[in-house]
Write a structure and sequence with these properties.
Helices cover 41% and strands 17% of the residues. The chain is of the alpha/beta class. The protein has one domain: TIM Barrel (Alpha-Beta Barrel). It has an eight-stranded parallel β-sheet with strand order 2-4-5-6-7-8-9-10. A two-stranded parallel ribbon has the order 1-3. The two termini are 18 Å apart.
Length: 297
């Protein structure tokens, strides 16, 4: 495998000059049944104590997080995700152009070429999803939305043509995400990555056949609408993820995240729902296989 990338996480704290606690948290108690981290960016560095791939996988397995979906959301990341998933049995890959990549590439006249490379990468057997694609109105203003929409539609078409799961990034764009899904037609399997809506939006996604993937945000104190969305989601549509190194769950918010911290989120989810922890873990495990297929590990 080629040398691992060391893309540094760009943080609000670093830009403002304030300081974060970048020490890696202790491992939580292992889960009673294996689960998968359904969305992770091992290649993005947060802090000085960076996990290399082998370390990230080993630490996750120690707490019964036995499988990881490694997501590449630009061309370098997508290439690396395919290579990593080819080498490590515990990984599968997802590849796409992140919504915020689309306006930049379009402005440089490179969007169509980049989409062609994503299609070539997505043909690999280790790639189980086209994602994360979608819409992001938080970081992209109205001037970039046309490119986002075009890129999103192209990724939906690609997922359907290749029979891959569609993995959607949705930030402040709920209505347009559903509108474009309705206009293009959803693939057989699609996931709302890091679900961020309320119960009403959850039900709209579920009616269209989506699985909802919950991240550490569900543990945040100001996330009651998200917890209400979790309550209306059937157990057979629930996934869990880290989006590491981002979105570290409470009470470790702000510190480096990694797949081995999934148990904190799953335990919080079980408590919110009143589910037996082992049963919820088993359901997430089955749901992950339903959405992404079997791993080699």
């Amino acid at each position: 495998m080629t040398e691992e990338p060391t893309r540094k996480r760009a943080t609000t704290e670093e830009k403002s000059g304030s300081r974060r606690d970048l020490t890696r948290p202790d491992a939580p108690e292992p889960l009673p049944h294996p689960v998968a981290d359904n969305h992770c960016h091992i290649d993005i560095v947060d802090g000085d104590d960076w996990f290399r791939t082998e370390q990230a996988i080993a630490a996750a397995k120690d707490v019964n997080v036995t499988r990881i979906v490694q997501v590449g959301c630009d061309l370098p990341g997508a290439r690396w995700a395919v290579e990593a998933a080819g080498q490590y049995d515990e990984l599968v890959a997802a590849v796409a152009l992140h919504p915020n990549e689309a306006p930049r590439l379009a402005a440089e006249g490179q969007l169509d070429e980049a989409l062609r490379e994503i299609e070539a990468l997505a043909g690999s057997d280790v790639v189980r999803a086209v994602g994360e694609t979608g819409l992001d109105y938080f970081r992209t203003d109205e001037g970039g939305r046309e490119a986002q929409h075009a890129s999103f539609r192209a990724h939906i078409d690609l997922a359907k043509r290749l029979g891959k799961t569609l993995m959607i990034h949705d930030r402040d764009a709920h209505d347009d995400v559903l509108r474009i899904i309705d206009e293009e037609g959803a693939p057989e399997r699609w996931v709302m990555h890091c679900f961020s809506g309320d119960a009403e939006f959850a039900e709209q996604c579920l009616r269209r056949g989506a699985h909802l993937s919950f991240a550490g945000t569900v543990t945040f104190k100001n996330a009651q609408p998200l917890r209400e969305a979790l309550l209306v989601t059937p157990q057979d549509r629930i996934l869990v993820e880290t989006d590491a190194p981002f979105l570290t769950p409470h009470p470790l918010r702000g510190r480096p995240n990694a797949s081995y911290l999934v148990p904190l989120t799953v335990r919080a989810m079980a408590e919110v729902r009143g589910d037996d922890l082992g049963q919820l873990c088993a359901a997430i495990d089955v749901n992950t296989t339903t959405v992404y297929g079997k791993w080699r590990a």
